[in-house]
Amino acid sequence: MSQTQKAELKINADQVSLADAGSAADFIALMKPRVMSLVVFTGLIGLIMAPVSVHPVLAVSAVILIALGAGASAALNMWYDADIDAVMARTKTRPVPAGRIDQEDALMFGLWMSGLSVLSMAVLINYVSAALLAFTIFFYAVIYTMLLKRRTTQNIVIGGAAGAFPPVIGWAAATGSVAVEPIIFFLIIFMWTPPHFWALALVKNDDYRAANVPMLPVVHGATATIRQILLYTLALTITVMLPYLLGFSGLFYGVGAGVASAIFLGLCVLLAISPAERRNRMAGMVFAYSIFYLFIVFALLPIDRLMASGL
Predict the structure, then answer these.
(1) Residue 74 near residue 31 (C-beta atoms within 8 A)
(2) How big is the CA angle at 154 (ends 170 and 208), to the nearest 5 degrees?
(3) Cα dihedral: 244, 246, 250, 255 (round 10)
(4) How many CB atoms lie within 10 A of CB 41?
(5) Which of 136, 157, 245, 275 is deepest in the core (most CB within 10 A)?
(6) Contact at 8 Å (CB) between 215 and 205?
(7) Range of 166's domain?
(8) What is the DSSP secondary structure assignment for residue 70, as one 8-state letter?
(9) What value does the CA radius of gyration of the chain take, rounded to a whole number of Å?
């Protein structure tokens, strides 16, 4: 074989390798890894906060399966929403609308991942956590994506329940049951979701309008949306204090969550009084802080427990 032929073979092999890597990266993107990271984190906190010890292998397995379930939901969402994703600047570079993954392949990937995560959870962990994971995938893919998102301004309010289940699944993975504590964790995320997404919707209002998605700012305008953000953030501030008020977290959590909530509420007030030309910038700050806020609130729970135990 000549040196030229060898060089051509090497180039072809490199091209195949790069294509395979790109394909793998696209399927990972299909699972919305940034969104998944927050889901995995809250699921892990639910597992850690359960009043039982879990074998490390089982704990890691449960968290991985929660991640796979979240990824499956995201893939099914991208399959169904490919048409509107192609219209919106924020989403048009996603694998399906950009043409890097076929829509049918995204569907098959999502269904396969759904089955794998739920069946593995049932076999390796327990049936309660598997049932909750299955319901979460169904709720996000069918109830939110297919039935609510394009039909009602309450899409985020109702659909937010899907993102609130991971700590409940984590708790159930550890205990095989559900208790008051994970229900409170669920409520925290449920109340957090509307101000979080409506802040984003204010920034991306033109995108949602172009895609004909009835987000609250599109249908009722910025003023009504900001009013709802304030109301939900106020309700969230109260909900976040429930772990302390009900006695399953201590003063460290109570003070930390209270300060974080006061900052969140303060940013929402600043959003409400901002002039129109600065509204989007302020909404972007509210959105960015909301992600940090949820991370801090859930991180405070196990830290508070460690401090209470004297470790």
Answers:
(1) yes
(2) 105
(3) 10
(4) 18
(5) 136
(6) yes
(7) 29-177
(8) H
(9) 22
